[in-house]
Specification:
It is a single chain. 40% of the residues lie in helices and 24% in strands. It is an alpha/beta fold. The chain has two domains: 2-120, Rossmann fold, CATH 3.40.50; 127-223, Orthogonal Bundle (Arc Repressor Mutant, subunit A). It has a five-stranded parallel beta sheet, sandwiched between helices. It has a four-stranded antiparallel beta sheet with strand order 8-9-10-11, covered by helices on one side. Strands 12-14-13 form a three-stranded antiparallel beta sheet. The radius of gyration is 18 Å and the shape is globular. The model has no long low-confidence stretch (mean pLDDT 90).
Length: 225
């Protein structure tokens, strides 16, 4: 997953980045409103962790702009030292998915992210069954008949994103953005996505037929469930 941390307290931002990076997520930073706006309206994110009090403006303005942009589905958790009920209400009414008041536990942040994923994708738990494979989105595991597949982090993230968006065609650009991050820094002519998918398919097909893992010619991929 691709996560944008919009937080001007650099120590806190770096702590979150280190913690979530160890969980296998791709992390980007923005320290002020202008740089956050630039990133948000060029890229899409699985999660935006958004401070309300930013140099150069209020984070609520960013959230209102994001929610007013057609087709954007980024999940947003507001992170703020503001404790007043009115501020929490404004954030949630502006479209935030959740709210954490500082100081907060990084483990709680991760748990809330998992809860949002479950709600967003209508999951009852953190495990998804895919044609006898079991995907554990919390622990970053993929198993077949109890045996763990030896996937790289990128292979897992590709499969995880495709499964969460099952039955939808996911373009190579969209997949690249959510797994690798800022698309402006990536060579659009590279076939590295196809190489990772090829390796992933090889590992899956060693256990069972994967005719449900479809290549949509000239566009991208789809997991059919």
């Amino acid at each position: 997953m691709n996560i944008l941390i919009v937080e001007d307290e650099k120590i806190l931002a770096l702590e979150m980045a280190e913690f979530l990076g160890k969980e296998g997520y791709t992390i980007e930073h923005a320290w002020k409103k202008s740089s956050a706006a630039e990133k948000i309206f060029v890229n899409t994110y699985d999660f935006i962790l958004l401070d309300l009090s930013l140099p150069g403006g209020d984070g609520l303005n960013l959230l209102n702009q994001l929610r007013g942009t057609k087709g954007r589905e980024d999940s947003v958790i507001i992170l703020t030292a503001r404790g007043e009920v009115d501020d929490r209400i404004k954030g949630l009414e502006a479209g935030a998915d959740d709210y954490l008041a500082k100081p907060f536990s990084l483990s709680e942040l991760l748990a809330r992210m998992h809860a949002i994923i479950r709600r967003k994708h209508k999951l009852e738990k953190n495990e998804i069954s895919i044609h006898k494979f079991i995907l554990d989105i919390k622990n970053h595991l993929l198993c077949f008949n109890g045996e763990r597949l030896n996937l790289t982090n990128k292979e897992f993230e590709i499969f995880n994103y495709l499964v969460l968006n099952k039955n939808r065609v996911i373009s190579r650009v969209n997949l690249t953005e959510h797994v690798w991050g800022d698309i402006l820094e990536i060579n659009s002519d590279s076939n590295f996505v196809d190489v990772h998918v090829k390796n992933l398919r090889k590992k899956l097909s060693a256990h069972a037929p994967i005719d449900w893992f479809e290549t949509v010619r000239s566009i991208g991929y789809r997991i059919n469930l």
